[in-house]
Structures
1.
Amino acid sequence: MADLADIVATFGQVLHVAGIPATPERRARFAQAVIEIDPTQVTQLYWVGRVTLISSREQIEIYDLAFNQVFRGIIDLTDTGKGDPTPNPENSRESGDQQPAHENSDQTSNQGSAGTSGTPGEKSNEDDESVLPSLLAPASDDERLKDSNFLECTPEELDLIATLVSKLPLVPPRRPSRRSKRHHHGQSIDMRSTIRHSYAHAGDPVDLRYRNEKDRPRRVVLVADVSGSMEPYSRIYLHLMLGAVRALHAEAFVFATRLTRLTKFLAIGDPDAAYQRVAQNTPDWFGGTRIGKTLLEFIRDHGQRGIARGAVIVIVSDGWETDDPAILGQAMQRLSRLAHHIIWVNPRKAATSYEPLVGGMAAALPFVDTFVSGHSLRALQEVMDAIRNAQNRSVMKIQKQAI
């Protein structure tokens, strides 16, 4: 039976030959994710590998071919250390004198028990107990976790998605620093270094030294709605908060009828203990929604003290306000003066007929720089891209300041 190291080595080699840079770091991340998630179906394993091993949408088609080649039994995993590397999955069935797999039943029957029951053709009774059924099970074409709305996912799928979300790579936005660093092609002359090196040339500054501006991570603040209407999404975004707090040193808040700061709870080592403490300290979990008053509370108790100043604020809410929407508009106006960039994540935006014309969303939208849905894994990638690219104020905010 193939062990995890053989599986990772074979799959990584197939991806590398196919043109996907499956580096040792990505392979190690894939192996660690498999150990922690312990997938029982090939669909789960597919998404674990897709999240950890590829870096762009252009690689998805090649990844799918490689995954089918390795985990549908085309490769004998017991022989991963023997022979030449696996051919490119795009040419896994080359034209010529190569025979189909079902015509080589005499040969495959002598290869061993592992890695043969997934191939087309005859199945041996001896293979049933020795192969990895969780890796070679057929995947359903209807399971599209990447584009499935979190509202429509089963509890098992939400468990898998939540675990993957907490491990997604988060890149912080950058901001200019007051300090500079030496650079061969800098934009300004380093006078002190230039003069110091001119002593070797009788004081003639023939060797100019330059400096460039440095940048540093910009603060990220996540404020998530955990009211009853956001219940299917709150669980996923709590895992995103966990990853942001640990990777970006972000600040995390949740609200329903009141505001609760979760940063110190999510920063501890054990995720299960963190979520337990979060639930204990959020008594209004899945209650009503008072977005305007809770944002005013955030500004009064935390934002004006420095957390929101120059930060990227990510608000996750469907905009269903039970109070006067004018209060929310007032809070968003004040917040826009403090924050560098405001991202509003509303899962209901995914509906084609959605129009934020009334209520809290209509009051908040004029002060929002980036408006995304974040209703699925693919849409969640748009949220992370919005956080990473929130380096300049949007045209909407410039227009607001001019009014």
Note: The first strand starts at residue 174 and ends at 182.
2.
Amino acid sequence: MGKLLFLPGAGASADFWKPVAERLPGGDPAHFFAWPGLGDEPAQPQISGIDDLVAMVVEQMDRPCDLVAQSMGALVAILAALTAPAQLRSLVLCATSGGVPVDDLGGTDWRADYRREFPGAAPWITEIKMDLSDQIGAITAPALVLVGDRDPISPPAVGERLSRLLPHARLQRIRGGGHDLARTHADQVATLIAEHLGRY
């Protein structure tokens, strides 16, 4: 039996993916992450950067895992996939650049809005700059990349670039989807994820 790991974005709440998870067929156990010190989540002294979030995920990868990740959480998922490839069964990457440079693709900068919404969040979250373009091709597990055609932060061109770098990726556009498409289009997203998980 495998395991489903659900990773939120910088909003950090473990509840983010639950509307989608509730619509998935039963089976493998699920684990919902919250990110200490981000969003409205209380800080923990041992969490001081993205590497610590990656370590949290890798610790849960004690069997073949599907990582289902939103926005910044997809960067964590990709880093975890590169750290523990033998335990990765598949990826679902939603509304994200996944560590691919996107300055030339028209996405809006989310940092100022995030700081206004979550003034107590750890400062490091808005200082992350990673280019994983040369490493992503090493991830050979099946990947589903979900993009919303109305996402101002990660527009479709961002998902297209990410999916081209992943050797076994399928790109799916969600019509009318914004950056929170996993919430606003939970039925459609759950259907696509269920199809993805059922392919192997």
Note: The mean pLDDT is 95.
3.
Amino acid sequence: MEHGLTRDVKKFRDLKELSLAAASDIAELIVGTVSRKGHFSLALSGGGTPRTLHGLLGSVYRDKIPWESVYVYFGDERYVPHTDRQSNYLMAKETLLDLVPISPVNVHPIPTDLDVPSEAAAAYERELRRNFGEGDSSFDLILLGMGGEGHTASLFPGSPALDEIRRWVMSAEVPATPHTRVTLTYPIINRAFAVYFLVSGADKREALREVLGADADYHTYPAKGVAPFRGRLEWWVDSAALMG
């Protein structure tokens, strides 16, 4: 999956330093893209790592980013109500979206109110295809994290979603709480203009070493399967994750 891929690993002392640098880069990327084509599409990740980044985007860079031209999506979602403390949408709302002047119509959460998760996945895929079309258009930037076992979004080791080549969004049962998720898949992730991984903590060290190496299998370390066709993949990592 890595043919033609340009990969950049940026190392920082800690999560705060990483987040400061990433926020500056992302703000510059948004401003430049909006000035060039009039809009910017961003997919957010869940977990704890992006909280500091969100806070910076919503404070230091609040008035420097043209939020009216930013469209926000999500890389995955736990299948819980959007008011649940486990919801990725709720985390993003509280740490970023409520802090910036972005229109609610520009925010596209993954639906979690349908009876069957696979129907929610199909609905979100229809929305993405309607917004991006069937050409090469995709996200301007996808932010991803990585778990200690190498999962990213809700693509976990051994998941059937890892071998999906057609669907952009799938429901999945995962070995984490809550078990039911909806996730983007490689076919849409790898169409992005840029993908940034934010990785922090010593618990990610072994998986990161495998994923950055040459021999890891994406079935075992799903983050390895992220290889955007346009060639821009950046790893923003702290010293604890990269040490050793």
Note: The chain has one domain: 6-242.
